[in-house]
Amino acid sequence: MSHELSKRIANLSPEKRAELLRKMAAQKAASGNSTQGLIPVQDRSRPLPLSFAQQRLWFIDQLQPGTSLFNVPMAVRLEGALDVAVLERALREVVRRHEVLRTTFREDASGPVQVVAPEPALTLERKDLTGSPPEEAWRLAREAAAQPFNLATGPLLRALLLTSAPGEHLLVVVVHHIVSDGWSMTLLV
């Protein structure tokens, strides 16, 4: 579903949205419960091939290892009371639900492959900047964004929480482009 269509549906009145859902359910019932066209689930116990886009990014990483050129950073200011343990659990749950965020990329005898880890390997790094100048948080955010990823060992998502005062935080999330794009980043935040 396109972002524009999602916005249009979100802006519908509750009555119109309910009507749309009824029509969609009726259409689905009329078409039957056919599973034709569903993408088969791959066996995740062994390495998987890369998509063409992933092959391209993996190849560039082999030519220029240690670059942050394909890092996708974002920073979100969080104000008010924050339960850091809940934030960390929420981030870990997102990684658990989306296997691409648990994926690393290595080379075996057949070439580059994806390896999906069974469990998320995410730790929310925390830094207390109380008493530091405001630009210190942005300096650390830029530093986190510039830190390269190792595609073979991962994880390919990092999260950093910078606290400048009680109730004032900056959440920095950096993901390698091989496991994300602009649209998927909007879902994360």
UniProtKB/TrEMBL annotation:
One GO CC annotation: cytosol
InterPro entries recorded: CAT-like_dom_sf (IPR023213), Condensation_dom (IPR001242)
Domain Condensation, residue spans: 48-189
Membrane-spanning intervals of the chain: none
Taxonomy, superkingdom: Bacteria
BP terms from Gene Ontology: amino acid activation for nonribosomal peptide biosynthetic process; enterobactin biosynthetic process
Taxonomic classification: Bacteria, Pseudomonadati, Myxococcota, Myxococcia, Myxococcales
GO MF annotation terms: 2,3-dihydroxybenzoate-serine ligase activity; phosphopantetheine binding
Name of the protein in its database record: Non-ribosomal peptide synthetase
Pfam families reported in the protein's UniProt record: Condensation (PF00668)
Gene3D superfamilies with a match to the protein in the record: Chloramphenicol acetyltransferase-like domain
